[in-house]
Amino acid sequence: MLLVTGVTGLNGSAVVRELAREGVAVRAMVRDLAKARGAEVPSTVEVVEGDMLRPRTLGPALDGVERVLLISAANERLVEAQTGFIDAAKAAGVEHVVKFSGRACDPESGFRFARMHAEIERYLRVSGMHWTMLRPSAFMQVYFREVPSMTGDGVLSLPMGDASIAPVDVADIAKVAAALLQGKGEADRRYEMTGPESLTLDEIAGTVSSVIGRPVRYVDADPVAQREALLAAGLAPFFADALDELFAERRKGGDEARVEQSTHEAFGVRPTTFAEFVRKHAAVFRGEARPANLWAAGWLPSDR
Question: Per the record, a Pfam family (predicted)?
Fold first, then answer.
């Protein structure tokens, strides 16, 4: 039995759909069964309730499971939730945990969620179970959030300076995650993933513009003003501060700006270019359709 957690989020739902497309039997864990319907979990997938922060609820989800893809919400209790789940998985006899992490995961990072993921990775490595760390870079899907300003004002405004980033399509990640969950690849190692190009925000804006047929220009947002705007829009200070840290790290360059295609190559996944991604979702970028998973339009995906 295979188990995927975090299936109401962007990546978890994509992995479950990929496994279902491949005809692989999989169990999906959610905190609320009603949310599984909103995440478009295929009807062929077994869905069970379980809350990582309440380990006693995890028994049905972990019963008979050999391999787990571990994803959960990015919040203040991320470390507590995932380390508790790792303990429960070990106690239930799980053999292998594939942890969804991040390319910039580092205990010395200025970005709090990168530090949290690094701490969880350390915990998993010494758990006694086999492990795999899947570390993707920024998701192409996060640019869905910018659609209103790109279609309305013709502006992509982010505090990135002239830094580059190598975003990856979640569909590519899902193919690799599905393969890892089926026992492909090597155990006890990390797999890094980025898209095939390192792009500036000017180039990203230009790509969107060329596909949707209207001008879109990049504006380097002031970080202080960006944070104030997010707070005014109702984002909690914890997350506003986290985003400020994230963009500060990205302005320095680093792992998310460097192209890494070895994982795509190892699993035979053709990397999606950003232009291909925008063309595939042209209706979304033109403002004519909504993303399949609304978390794709959020700053911090619930499963990252």
Answer: NmrA
